Inverse folding.
């Protein structure tokens, strides 16, 4: 969008000459053919993996003794390892965290059930909570 330098008439940048006086438009932009237009298109760039460690795998193995919490972090770590988000995915560590988390979740469920049942039995039968098994 410009004006002719000779007569001052409005001249669109896509027209080569002023329609009023015929002066050449200095801001003229030639249309591109298909080959030129394709040369300006960028090729898609593949996403590079991030540098660094998959911290979720380390956190998962550290928290795996807590059961469900470690299980959540282990699943996230495995997802990161499979997606190739990191260059050093630590997939074996994530798998180990998953296995330990599953075992610890089962352990905590059994622990809660056994000691919960014992506590309920002690309260029901008038025990003081001190487990004295003298007969």
């Amino acid at each position: 969008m410009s004006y002719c330098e000779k007569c001052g008439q409005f001249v669109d940048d896509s027209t080569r000459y002023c329609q009023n006086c015929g002066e050449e438009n200095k801001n003229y932009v030639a249309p591109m053919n298909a080959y030129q237009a394709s040369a300006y298109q960028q090729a898609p760039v593949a996403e590079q993996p991030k540098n660094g460690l998959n911290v979720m795998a380390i956190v998962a193995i550290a928290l795996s003794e807590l059961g469900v919490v470690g299980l959540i972090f282990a699943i996230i770590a495995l997802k990161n390892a499979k997606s190739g988000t990191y260059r050093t995915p630590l997939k074996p560590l994530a798998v180990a965290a998953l296995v330990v988390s599953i075992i610890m979740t089962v352990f905590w469920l059994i622990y809660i059930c056994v000691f919960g049942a014992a506590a309920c039995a002690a309260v029901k039968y008038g025990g003081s909570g001190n487990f004295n098994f003298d007969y």
